[in-house]
Amino acid sequence: MVLNPSKYQDTRTWKMTPAMIRARKPFFKGNMLGLTLLLGVTGSVYYYTYHFLHKDNDFADVPIPPIDPQELEALKKEYEAKKKA
């Protein structure tokens, strides 16, 4: 498939013509502002999500009641019995 030459591109080098560059010039700042805003919002969402999900949440503030050694042995035996079955 052969590309049809555009009147806004030089047919030999495929670069934009000066007319096309002049036509795009007024929109450059707005486009860059929009791009910056879009990337900023996207980056902020990813940053917030990453740091929110990677918090150290190891339940350190939950007190663990002490366990009696006899209860611990009974629980170990129960665990081993379930493991074998």
Written account of the structure:
The chain crosses the membrane at residues 27-49. The chain is mainly α and 85 residues long. The chain has a domain at 1-53. The protein is 58% helix and 0% strand. The radius of gyration is 33 Å and the shape is elongated.
Supply database-style keywords.
85 residues; mainly alpha
Gist?
With 85 residues, the chain is an all-alpha fold.
User: Averaged pLDDT, please?
Assistant: 89
- The termini sit apart by 69 Å
What proportion strand?
Answer: under 5%
Q: SSE order in H/E notation? A: HHH
Number of strands: 0
Instruction: Give the fraction of residues assigned to helices.
Output: 55-70%
Rg from C-alpha positions? 33 Å
Large-scale geometry: elongated
Q: How many H/I helical runs?
A: 3
